[in-house]
Amino acid sequence: MTKNRIGALQLEIQSLSRNIEGKQGSIRVQEAGLAETLRRLNETERMTFAAAVLSSGDLTSLWSDMDASFSLQSAMREDIAELSVQKQSLSETKAATEQKRAELVKQRNNLLAEQGSLDATRRAQNDLLAQTKSQESTFQAILAEKQAAKASFEAALADLQSRLQYTIDPSSIPPAGKGILRYPVDNVKVTQYFGNTAFARSGAYAGNGHNGIDFRASIGTPIKAALSGTVIGTGNTDAVRGCYSYGRWVMVKHGNGLSTLYAHLSQSGVSTGDSVRTGQLIGYSGSTGYATGPHLHFGVYVASAVQIIRLGDATNKKTACANAVMPVAPLSGYLNPADYL
Predict the structure, then answer these.
(1) Total-model pTM
(2) Rounded CA gap, 103 and 98, in Å?
(3) Element (H, E) at 149
(4) How far is CA 233 from CA 131, 220, 261, 319, in A?
(5) Which range (15-29, 165-179, 184-198, 279-293) has the least confidence?
(6) Which of 147, 316, 321 is nearest to 242 (CA)?
(7) 292 has a pLDDT exceeding 60
(8) Quick one: what percent of the chain has pLDDT higher than 90?
(9) Distance between CA 149 and CA 49 in Å, rounded?
């Protein structure tokens, strides 16, 4: 559908461009004619009345010349009016052309996003097929391995979080309020909230509750920055064999004292140090890391409390995720995203 719209816009722009060329040619012809009229009028007006009488053979010829001069002036006024109309029409056609070109750029960006989503979907599907080889038994074994590794990771992370001490300065972060952050997905469907959720009470997260919000997002869904800021870290815990955590993630630090995390991505489109604007595409959703299905894990942190570190350096414990780099904060450094969305 987007490709069809791009084709239609290109044809419209070509038609408008031809129209512009035609109008410009017409204006050039009219301007040349108007210049000639002005030249002839100037020659007529430079001759005094007495000179005109003397140079004319009789009064009849004089009146005829004066009548011709008046006709010339009238024609010139009509030419000026027509030229003004043509220039206004040219201006409107140019404005319409620019509008179509802007829409063309927008549609091309949409097409790139759609292609990115499709690529992300195919990549995730291929990864899953490569892992499971389409065999249920293999899938169950991988799932059990992930659950065991995740439990070990959560225990180490919970121990680290409990040992980290941080006192929040309320003046360093904005007070809770709707609309401080925009939703990172366009179609909002929350599958798990922050805190002591039913899944957390079932034994997940080592008893510390869910540290973010999960949004339903099929593989390849565009993920967008919740606020302008700077990318302070990206990573992929799946690169560490046996570590099932955030998977592919991006963290953005904002100017209001908050930082936001986007995790379980199938691919990211930004790098550390990049500046992003509110609503900018930063990646695509997936099911990397420990995820029972495709979704986005969205976390909000006190910016001054979060560290991006190698987990093993922080915990001094040997776990499957010891070599994985990820954001870590004390328990007080995690904020409820719902307070700011």
Answers:
(1) 0.58
(2) 9
(3) helix 136-163
(4) 27, 21, 9, 22
(5) 15-29
(6) 321
(7) yes
(8) 28
(9) 107
